[in-house]
């Protein structure tokens, strides 16, 4: 596996350079100090000498390498000595490189690694190996990007002077700089790549320090999957560089098609396992095994449902639902890398496994609020959100989902002004909601006199039941209730007397007032 300049630099390799890396692991200071045999351990959250425990743990547990960031250059010596003593390779990561970038590229290199050299999937190995092979054949410096100009893989360069600023910024930023992309669009480069399978030649720009390049589209049929770029180094490109680049694009296409199919199948399995865990039909172990999750770390569930009116689930198009799901996925992934988004029936759930032990409900409520506001801002749709309880392990996820559902149910039944809530925020409303659900499901628990009052209003288009409820909600304050209904206080007094005469209710009795307040909140059919 090769990440190479300019992302990382090898500081120590006590076991040589042929040590196999079998997995990538993030070691957070909050995590238990442990590593897997053969893992590349990324020591996040610890710079310089603070990363010494990670180096020692990596050696103790048989990790292949530990990657750290240095505060000052002199720290490399102490860490290298510790790595040599522990028998583990040490990589230093540039300070301006994001850990998620190193993680993604390392995992991509591992996923793309050839299995047994049998020549399948094009017979040229992974994307990094393909980039290196293409560099050898063209005599240039190669990078492979997807259609959003995100760098997927790149070749090594033994001479940093050969690498121009554009390549360096593209790899460090994980994407080509916008200023240069605008220039390429102005020159019509992307248009030519979309329209043709031929190699596009791009002249250098000495004033901006950009060297000559070749580019070719990666295609599967009529569909463009990405681009291969070849930068000219200190020597001219090979005579047959165009031909080599065309061949590399065809091999890359086979590889990217296979990767898309595998990712699609993997995503389907992940969503199935996550939905099963949320529903309680599948235990936590299958999902934990599939994604390498820690069963003993805290977890929680955020729930979302569409708002009222045209924004209810039945009024939202399939395309809009997809856009909502994508937006929620992006926002939650920015906050928590292990977040999983799935839809069960008409609700969207965000499963948050492996939460920090210091997380609190307020933080999760803030995440939910950000999501709700973003969906309304970008898509014009209203979302209600709920925060399920934080459970001590993945096995408690169904409990957290049930609590999230209780909150969403209450928001629909009794009406809650808050857009996103946790149970402590609306405890009373949730309990009232559940009492109403009980009354709705069991007509035998209702007072027939109140049922008769609602039926009378329905037949005569009256407002007696509404008036009684407003009166009770106002604690018997006639003027306040009349103002709420926009009627004269005498009109309200008349309606109350009329309701009592028709039904035999006595609203001076506390028990009858309590039952009336509950039952009259049921839908009109109740």
TrEMBL record:
Q: Which residues cross the membrane?
A: none
Write down the superkingdom of origin. Bacteria
InterPro entries noted in UniProt: CdaR-like_regulators (IPR051448), CdaR_GGDEF (IPR041522), PucR_C-HTH_dom (IPR025736), PucR_C-HTH_sf (IPR042070)
Renumbered to this chain, the signal peptide range is none
Per the database record, which ranges form the PucR C-terminal helix-turn-helix domain?
464-522
Where would I find the CdaR GGDEF-like domain in this sequence?
Answer: 288-409
The record's comment on protein family reads: Belongs to the CdaR family.
PANTHER family per the record?
Answer: CARBOHYDRATE DIACID REGULATOR (PTHR33744), CONSERVED PROTEIN (PTHR33744:SF17)
Stated name of the protein: Transcriptional regulator
